[in-house]
Amino acid sequence: MMDENTADAASVPLRLRDHAYDVVIGPGVRTSLADVIRRLGAGRAVVVSARPAEWVPDTGVETLLLPARDGEQDKTLATVEGLCGEFVRFGLTRSDVVVSCGGGTTTDVVGLAAALYHRGVPVVHLPTTLLAQVDASVGGKTAVNLPAGKNLVGAYWQPSAVLCDTEYLSTLPRRELLNGLGEIARCHFIGAADLRGLSLKEQITASVSLKARIVETDERDTGLRHTLNYGHTLGHALEKATDFALRHGEGVAIGTVFAGRLAGALGRIDQARVEEHQDVVRYYGLPTALPVEAEPAALIDLMRHDKKAMNGLSFVLDGPNGAELVSDVPHEVVARVLDRMPRARLADLVGGAALEASTTDAAQK
């Protein structure tokens, strides 16, 4: 898949029992799209892009370009239905291909539309944000939101290829980079080596490699794949509680700090490991405090609706055997740990200024 224009790229294979593809990471790899489509044997393509037309590489085949918007407001079943309607009008068949070009929302929505249309058509992802490159585009999970919570309607639909062009990242504002770093930070606690100090491309490659190995072992979330949700239970609740003023990676970062404190409160890890959670998250410049605007009782209620919560409150937590899903965590312990979390104003958190000098940490009183 790599040529002289993508010689600096890394390729991470993902091999499942009945499906295999590569995640290619590096500058300029988007130019491989036409070769990918040719190898798939697709006669036509629908490209759904949340980015300007000039960001979309040549597909080499007849193409319909559809505009999209990144953001939780469009991560809905209505958006999926609209895309499928466009597929019908274009005459898309199972012999054709769908391509996403955008962030995590676009990747999720387009992936779900491809999974549902004609009960499945091939999809190729060109993730353009750091969050989408390290997480949303890899592993085949697709989903949209309901009013009750995030990612409650979805399907597993593996892509045929993923092209993570790092040149896209040079256009991102700092906060969007931080959004992706939240997913990279949590890798520290689910089996990755310490990624601090590596280049961004190396961090992306290591994160994707870790996820690929986990997905190969557990494609359908029956066990090990739960560990990828480290920090996500509280993270998703924070997104919802703040009406998505907190971005996904920011919520995951705070959720990672919380997961460390909760594991400590349950006696699963020692205090040094608890503090390591905060140190790692701080290293990436991510928030570590709860927004004062989010009431703990409301957060607990939202966490009860998390799709992993089969038995009471469930969290992926660190422990003597590494990260694992822990079910039926006592309500009173969760409430106590939340109450003792440091606090900051939401405006400071989203401004990247969640410095604990301006917070109250009840645990240190």
Number of distinct beta strands: 13
Number of helices: 12
Helical fraction = 25-40%
Radius of gyration: 20 Å
Poorly predicted sequence stretches spanning 5 or more consecutive residues: 353-365
Dominant shape: globular
Please tell me the overall pLDDT. Answer: 92
Give the end-to-end Cα distance, rounded to a whole number of Å.
57 Å
Structural class: alpha/beta
List the helices and strands in order. EEHEEHEHEHEEEHHHHHEHEEHEH
Strand content: 15-25%
Strand order, sheet with most strands: 1-2-9-6-5-3-4
Largest sheet: 7 strands, mixed
Spell out the key features of this protein:
19% strand; single chain; disordered C terminus; 365 residues; 12 helices
Q: What would you note in describing this structure?
A:
With 365 residues, the chain is an alpha/beta fold. It contains twelve helices and 13 strands. The chain has helices at 33-40, 77-90, 104-116, 130-136, 174-186, 200-217, 232-241, 248-265, 271-283, 296-304, 331-339, 346-350; strands spanning 10-15, 20-26, 44-49, 62-67, 97-102, 123-127, 141-146, 149-156, 161-165, 290-291, 313-317, 324-329, 343-344. The strands form four sheets. A seven-stranded mixed beta sheet has the order 1-2-9-6-5-3-4, sandwiched between helices. Strands 7-8 form a two-stranded antiparallel ribbon. The chain has a two-stranded parallel ribbon with strand order 10-13. Strand 5 (97-102), helix 3 (104-116) and strand 6 form a beta-alpha-beta unit. Helix 4 (130-136) packs parallel to helix 5, helix 7 packs across helix 8 (248-265) and helix 8 runs antiparallel to helix 9. The longest helix has 18 residues, at 200-217. The radius of gyration is 20 Å and the shape is globular. The termini are far apart. 50% of the residues are buried. The model is unreliable at 353-365 (pLDDT under 50).
